[in-house]
Amino acid sequence: MKIGFAGMGRMGAAMAGRLVKLGHEVTVWNRTTAKSRPLADAGAMVAATPAELASQSDLIMTILTDTEAIDATYRGKSGLLEGAVIGKLFVEMSTVRPEVERNLAKSINARGAFLIDCPVGGTVGPARDGKLLGFVGGADIHVERAKPVLDQLCRRVDHCGPIGAGASMKLAINLPLSIYWQAFGEALALCKPLGLDPSKLIEIFSETSGGPNTLKVRGPALADALRGKAPDPVTFDIDSIRKDLRTMLEEGRALGRDLPVSAKALACYDEASRNGLGAADAVMMTASFVEQSARVK
Ligand SMILES: NC(=O)c1ccc[n+]([C@@H]2O[C@H](COP(=O)([O-])OP(=O)(O)OC[C@H]3O[C@@H](n4cnc5c(N)ncnc54)[C@H](OP(=O)(O)O)[C@@H]3O)[C@@H](O)[C@H]2O)c1
Which pLDDT tens digit goes with each residue over 96-138? Predict the structure, then answer.
């Protein structure tokens, strides 16, 4: 099966790189062409436009920033939907609202092709190692068709319901984590006077219910951040979490649900972004809060 992959950002590049490594015939496209170069060096073909990518692939995967990026890549000039797509399957993996995936499915179906949504949990390392968590929405028949490839990218794939169900699940899963980075900063502010070594602190939290799973993976980067060394490269940045929180709040409003803690968390992230941390890694949210709280008397 020929695989096309649009969006060579942090996640897309890691996933497409893995598929190339596993021996798939992969064609990539990215708005900023230079980001496709490492994939070309690894053996991928590079399409000049999304339409060309779609025309020469059987399965087309996309992981892009947000709704605007999806619109531009699918519906823009020489977009994916302008390719020869009849009978083809699209897998949309961005973190967006479920209605975005449902609307996209209508446009894709109108051209005789099919869509499933499969946003993912996990960051760049798991993407490279095939250890993501895939949350899938779509019809059984299309999910089955994509499953062999999804299984090579994910350690677990859960079919959550019809189109858009994956997006709902992904937003729900990211919600507590988005709040956590701020909450952990507040927790550490309380025990800062103890002067414990950051690695020791994170080890203690990881062993208790005060620490989520992510501390096992992101703990060392957070310990470095607490020592004043910002993570490089960045895996998931503060502006992306702001985008996720805004999306969760929009989805909550559409469902008639108030999400008060998420709203407050977004205000904290907005402030961090105003203070120049938008492009910084998520763990800097925690580290900068501890630092800042130490200055408040
Ligand atoms: N990073 C993570 O840990 C992580 C984990 C799970 C899910 N996600 C989700 O996965 C998605 C991608 O995240 P990422 O971290 O890989 O982001 P990223 O590194 O910032 O990459 C974003 C991608 O979207 C493309 N893009 C943005 N605006 C566009 C537009 N108007 N037209 C065409 N392409 C456009 C970018 O192209 P250019 O290179 O040209 O800018 C790039 O390929 C997001 O929805 C994010 O929430 C991220």
Answer: 999 999 999 999 999 999 999 999 999 999 999 999 999 999 9
Reading the block at residue 181, the tokens are 């980075």
Q: What pLDDT shows up at residue 217? A: 87
Q: For the residues 243-247, what does the mean pLDDT come to?
A: 98
Decide: 214 in ligand 1 pocket, CB within 6 A: no
Whether residue 10 has its Cβ less than 6 Å from ligand 1: yes
| Nearest protein CA to atom 17 of ligand 1, as residue | 9
For atom 47 of ligand 1, the residue with the nearest CA is 95
Query: Rounded CA gap, 62 and 120, in Å?
Result: 12
Kindly report the backbone phi and psi dihedral angles of residue 31, in degrees, each rounded to the nearest multiple of 5, phi listed first: -55, -50
Residue 233: asked if its preceding bond is cis (omega within 30°), the reply is yes
- CA 81 / ligand 1 centre spacing (Å): 19
Q: Whole-model pTM above 0.85? A: yes
